[in-house]
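Lab channel / #folding
Pinned by the channel admin:
"Please post every new chain as: sequence first, then the structure tokens as a reply. Keep commentary short and put observations after the output so the thread stays searchable."

First post following the new format, from NK:
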Amino acid sequence: MGGTSADIWHYNGEIEKKAETKISDIFIKTPILKIDTIAAGGGSITKYENKRFVVGPESAGSYPGPVCYRNNGPITLTDCNLILGRIAKEDFPKFFGKNKNLSISLPETIKKFRKLFLQVIKDFTNYKDFYQLANSFLNVAIENMSNAIKKITIQKGFNISNHALLIFGSASGQYCCKIAENIGVKKIIFSPYSSVLSAYGIGLSKFGSIHQYSVEAALQKNIINKHIKKIKKVLNLNKGIYKEIYTLRVKYYGCNTIIPIKLGNKKIIKIKKEFLKKHKKLFGFNYENRKMHIDSIEVEYFLKIKKTVYFKNSRNIIKKEIIYAKSEVYSDGKWIKIKKFSRNYFIKNKIIVGPAVFCDFNTSIFIEKNWNMLQMPSGDYILKEKKCKIQKKVIFISEKAYS
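Reply from TO:
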């Protein structure tokens, strides 16, 4: 989650891709990562329209940016987090205002929230202050992101209760615990390089290329072997330098739904079984007397690397010496005192108990009250939801009332 949008991708043992995509009403048949994007970022504009709280899709951008950027911008999710104490002006550089030499402004944000609050209480008298208003906007954004995750996981038959939520981008840390609670995930993983993880990942990624070749023939071993020979001839790769991974895109004859299956050394029987299993999980049924066809073959090749390069997140890059400081945050309708921690806290301690704020040189995480935070041996961090005692309640509903 960055400034303008939140990108969501699911990994369950294999890299999920789209075989085709639609851009400006034109279908492009090329493999891309199956990433869903929604308009929910730090710069997403929050509005009160037609008696509804709306977040996005418009964004304030970097200029004028949020109200707190001192450029007379609109109220955004960043302003909501600032006014509730989830982020602090001390953690921002002095690079704002006309001369770009000031910190972000809390008073300007409060001023605009007061104006909006006067509009809202005309329709909703139960709102007591503008802090509740800011919290409502955050809840809308959290619900939007939670629904987007459910759409690509739970609605497609995946049980994500044992999944972990991997977060990155400078805005993701303010919402991660609430989103995890909404979708039923009990673990959150994030890197100290959270705000620059995309660039960091590109630096560590393997160098390679992906190609696809149309087949449109029956699922048979001789057809697979025939086309792979053609592909090898076209690519003409040096086996000692490059590694190849082949993926079959299989479908039912006469259907457009393509299911990717890694080839490896699998026999046709195993490929068919895997296709039937995936198809049933995705759609809830299988055809009885319909043949399977190969739509296309995808080949991914990349340079062989003897040893995976991984830079451990060293503690030597720590610049701040502050272990923790006191802060206040608005939660559950009231202001509560919490501690604000830096990475140095983990030199002598093992766990941070929420509610708390973890803030380092490029990462800010709001740890909710039911969550604990630990540092992993790699230097990355993990949040775990506390085990709560379940209170069993029996509710009796009369047949008459139910009907």
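NK: The first strand starts at residue 6 and ends at 8.
TO: also worth noting, The chain has eight helices and 21 strands.
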